[in-house]
Amino acid sequence: MLQVTLDTSCVVNLLTALERSPLELLRLVRLAMESRVQIGVTDVVDDEVPHGDDPEEVHRRAYIREKLRQFPVASISPARRAERDALAEDFLRVLWPNVADGSRKRGNSLQDCRHLASHRLCGRDIFVTMDKQLARKAQAHADALSVVVVEPAEALAMVEPGLQSPAESGPWDPVVRPAREDDRGAIRALLEPIRDTYDDFDVWLGSALRTKDVWVAQLDEGVGAVAVWSAKTESTVKLATFFVGDDYRGRALGPHLLFHQIRHWIGMGISKVFVTVSSDRLQALTFFVDYGFRIEGVSARRYKSSAVEFVLAKHLFYETVADDQLDAFLGRVGQQLFDLPDHAAVRDARSWFLPPRFGALSAVSDGVVSGFQISRRGDDSQRMSISELEKVVYPARFVLRGRKAYLIPIKPQWADRMMSVPRAQLPLLANCDQLALRTDNTYYSYPRHLEDDLSDAPVLFYITGTDRMVAGFARIVERVIDEPEVLYLRYGRSGIYGLDDIRSHVKPSGRHHGCAMAIRFAWWAPFPTPVGLDEVRAMGLHHPQSIEAIDYADYERLLKAGGVTW
């Protein structure tokens, strides 16, 4: 992996309103965040932070120093600093042979040369600067310096030849589909890191392809993730294997595959899915929990004497729950999911290796429901938000007083690249041969609803243009308001906007001046029957000009009109 060193000119004003950083520089930083290149600075950069006693200068200096701490530092040990400084003097004589001793020009140029010397002694590959003169001089004397010095655009071309901008190439487009017989070799190679967990891996794989449901997720034409499961009863599924290859992690492939399986199980009417996670792979626990799975049991020495297997389950409830139904629903779900039978042998801690915490579920309300509480017997209570419990019991929904949903307009050209748009009737959970549906996207707009907490709120998308229809529903994962460059680096290719597109949504004045709003949404599901504008108007609603809050009851009416039956 190439090691790139950034000059002070690249980092001091990065992500500030003082100077617009080049798109190529931001893309380099984004590539580093995706672990496709390594970037850093030299320890010389700290000497170039602005100095002065002016309060604004002191504040800016502290901000810059904090920002610099986010970059790995290529440091020269004290024993080699004299060697570095001597090499810097040699570079100075090559690049600026006529600079006058004691001049400000000499001081600034020597600092540049110390950067280059530190870079070379640390054995790094490319030095990136926004100083055109430095780049031109260093390239003219490349043989003498033995250092590659380029501007951001040249560096990007060297790091990622032919790389298109996100606006041109779009987001990653994963495809989820049932496995075919000719996928055997790709699946075998993908599962190689865990083949030792099977008694006879090749026999198991052949049997799984014949007798189990095997789904794969593709990215860049390669099989990057696999899910193997089978129905144990008419209402219960065991997810036997779920694995994402090392080369595909961090690219949202696992969430795409798991959500598609959940949608498929909903289409089958499944009420429970369970999976085991080994203590050797505990990072998978958080992943499953985020999709509503919870630990139901622990099994020691199940496959390896040193490993513990955690049994997780996802329960699916097919109903909408209004205020007058809430207590009954919580009592039933609390007893089924969060409590155990009131029997002496069960309550006795001596019956357990790891005694569970027993509890009941109730609503937290002060006029309107704000969340839920699991009351523990003899222990602390645990709070859950509405959205947290909604993930646990998904696809169930809580139709409660005071709850908001949001309606977002989106142009057809953006919608077609971010989500599967239903332009004809289709089953909500169709078993397609190929399902190129993105479940995690970022939508950008002018900052709106600043006082609302949009995180985890339900959302509908209205396709504008000639479509003029509400096409489906999703969940807002998070809302962030910040400068376009920050949003671009944070969300990268999870959206289809380029940096200039994001900049077109900035607020020109007032609070959040110069900022745009990013809404990351997930769990997208298209309507079986899109709801046209005439039907929207008949409900007393109108087509949105920007993101709009709607009453949750209207959200439910639109879902029913779109063919969502539970």
Describe the structure.
There is one protein chain. With 566 residues, the chain is of the alpha/beta class. Among the domains are: 3-163, Rossmann fold; 320-393, no CATH class; 404-561, Roll (ph1033 like fold), CATH 3.10.590. Strands 6-7-8-9-10-12-11 form a seven-stranded mixed β-sheet, with helices on both faces. The chain has a six-stranded mixed β-sheet with strand order 19-22-21-20-18-23. Strand 9, helix 12 and strand 10 (272-278) form a beta-alpha-beta unit. The longest helix has 18 residues, at 104-121. The chain is globular. The two termini are 50 Å apart.
Short précis:
With 566 residues, this protein is α/β, with parallel strands linked by helices.
Let me know the CATH homologous superfamily of the domain at 3-163.
5'-nuclease
Reported for the largest beta sheet, the result is: 7 strands, mixed
- Compute the average pLDDT: 84
Distance between the termini: 50 Å
**Which CATH first-tier class of the domain at 3-163 would you pick?**
Alpha Beta
Q: Tell me the total number of β-strands.
A: 23
Determine the number of helices (DSSP H or I, runs of at least 4 residues).
21
CATH topology of the domain at 3-163: Rossmann fold
Secondary-structure arrangement, i.e. CATH architecture of the domain at 3-163: 3-Layer(aba) Sandwich
Radius of gyration (CA) equals 28 Å
Tell me the fraction of residues in β-strands, as a range.
25-35%
Which segments are poorly predicted (pLDDT under 50) over 5 or more consecutive residues?
A: 162-171, 425-437
Strand order of the largest sheet: 6-7-8-9-10-12-11
What would you call the structural class?
alpha/beta
Overall 3D shape:
globular
User: Fraction of residues in helices?
Assistant: 25-40%
